[in-house]
Design brief:
By secondary structure, this protein is an alpha/beta fold. The chain has helices at residues 36-42, 83-97, 100-116, 129-139, 157-171, 193-206, 218-226, 229-237, 249-255, 273-281, 290-295, 303-308, 328-341, 354-368, 402-409, 436-450, and strands at residues 2-10, 18-26, 29-35, 47-50, 54-58, 60-65, 119-126, 142-149, 179-185, 211-214, 264-267, 285-288, 312-315, 386-390, 415-420, 423-427, 430-431. Strands 1, 2, 3, 4, 5, 14, 15, 16 and 17 form a nine-stranded mixed β-sheet that branches. A hairpin with a 7-residue loop joins strand 1 (2-10) and strand 2. Helix 3 crosses helix 16 (436-450) and helix 13 crosses helix 14 (354-368). The protein is globular. The chain starts with a strand and ends with a helix. The relative contact order is 0.16. It binds zinc ion. The site of zinc ion has 6 residues, from loops.
């Protein structure tokens, strides 16, 4: 049984846009991508879904989220000026007020939001990875859920590491074809150096993907370069020994084995030329999260420089606690405008363009997660992960160039279809996988509890 999805435009990303195009799907796999007429001739018995004035593109890849924090959208606005206080309020609310079931409800709400915005693949960092894995499975999305590990006190490194190892063994049970587990030493200021080393070694031996937050805030840089600032003061209050590395956060991660794992690093705002060199040599990947970075006042990552160096860079929304939406088209627009407003160029005289942003939002994210053999472009043999975005809105017409129309005039709200491994998970206002009414009722209870 073949299904054809047709539209005014098909943007395979791996190749040039096709006007009056279509894609053919059989089971989980794409079997044809090209001109509509040619595919109709090749698959005369196919069921045809024509979306008209729309673009079919590879499923969007959000390579950095925290789905379990979806209940905290707008919950931390007052703490935003103080990253230390922001993290503290978030951590306490999650630990003290949310049950495992609450975390799963919040994560499922996040997965639903992603599916509605055309996101087919998610890279999620989670303290309760089983909740996120189940949420992705329930919503029908693809993804890697990185179980977080914390522990700034080096004396307890072995103990914290053993806990992580037990968790990972248990989480293997939740894996399926689409959803995998990874590891995440949370950040340089929450995980001690010996613990970073143990986790890197473990990730390499077990072939686990590793992600971590890196070079995000000024507070982090002050701690690592100079041994000062709010994190250093926090360590002193808790009697945690800290010998200041005196190097950049990226160099520090390299010194403790993290770069050997070809990690996915979220943020990378505070990076200099030498750091970029290290990232390139290590084939590290970057999750660029411009909206979260701007909202928390952390600054901006040099996206144009990542692209110019050929780093594997994807887009991440980060949690909605700091964004406040999980909408990759909006993220792409913000990334382009921010880069241009800052005067960055890829090469002399060439600003970041819509095509580069669409690449980052699809195949770039897939590379960042190490899933590019399965998803990220439309090509025969790839998994049938795709997104259909309407271009029929008054806010989008006329749409001369589909890439520009997507990045500069569209948002997740224009998505009409989200297909993962050939399965329709969202179509024209309706989730096909999750009972949204029941979920909405549970979210209301949860919101009440948090306030
Ligand atoms: Zn994050």
């Amino acid at each position: 049984m073949t299904t054809l999805y047709a539209a005014k435009w098909v943007m395979p990303v791996a190749s040039a846009p096709v006007e009056d195009g279509a894609v053919a799907v059989e089971g989980e796999v794409l079997v044809g991508v090209g001109a509509r007429e040619a595919l109709l001739r090749k698959f005369p018995d196919a069921a045809v879904n024509d979306f008209g004035e729309a673009v079919i593109l590879p499923g969007l890849v959000n390579c950095h989220t925290h789905l379990e924090l979806t209940a905290m959208r707008g919950f931390l606005e007052r703490e935003e000026g103080d990253f230390f206080a922001w993290l503290r309020k978030l951590t306490l609310a999650r630990l003290e007020r949310m049950t495992p079931d609450d975390l799963r409800v919040a994560a499922t709400w996040g997965a639903v939001e992603a599916a509605r915005a055309g996101i087919t693949t998610v890279g999620d960092a989670s303290d309760a990875a089983s909740a996120s894995m189940l949420a992705l499975r329930d919503a029908g999305l693809r993804g890697i859920v990185y179980q977080e590990s914390f522990g700034p006190d080096g004396k307890l490194a072995r103990e914290h590491f053993e806990k992580l190892r037990e968790k990972i063994q248990h989480l293997r049970e939740f894996e399926n074809e689409r959803v995998r587990v990874g590891v995440s030493p949370h950040a340089p200021y929450t995980v001690s150096a010996p613990q970073l080393e143990l986790i890197s070694e473990y990730a390499l031996t077990e072939s686990l993907s590793l992600m971590m937050h890196a070079a995000e805030s000024q507070a982090e840089e002050l701690l690592i370069r100079h041994g000062r600032g709010p994190f250093a003061e926090g360590f002193a209050r808790r009697d945690i020994e800290w010998s200041t590395p005196g190097v950049s956060p990226i160099r520090y991660l390299q010194q403790h084995g993290i770069l050997l794992t070809r990690p996915l690093l979220a943020h990378c705002i505070r990076v200099d030329a030498e750091d970029l060199e290290l990232l390139g040599e290590a084939d590290a990947r970057v999750a660029h999260c411009p909206k979260s970075n701007a909202k928390l006042g952390h600054g901006r990552a040099p996206f144009a420089a990542f692209v110019a160096r050929g780093l594997k860079v994807g887009l991440g929304s980060d949690s909605v606690a700091s964004n406040n939406t999980c909408d990759l088209l909006e993220e792409a627009r913000f990334a382009a405008l921010l880069s241009r407003a800052s005067g960055d160029v890829v090469t002399e005289g060439r600003m970041i363009g819509a095509t580069e942003l669409l690449e980052a939002a699809t195949v770039g994210g897939a590379r960042a997660l190490g899933l590019d053999e399965r998803t990220g472009v439309l090509a025969p043999g790839m998994q049938a992960d795709l997104t259909v975005v309407s271009l029929a809105g008054a806010h989008q017409r006329p749409a001369y160039d589909p890439a520009a129309a997507l990045v500069f005039a569209s948002s997740g709200r224009d998505v009409r279809l989200t297909l993962v491994a050939g399965q329709e998970v969202y179509r024209d206002g309706r989730l096909m996988t999750v009972d949204e009414e029941r979920l909405t009722a549970r979210m209301k209870e949860l919101t009440h509890k948090l306030t």
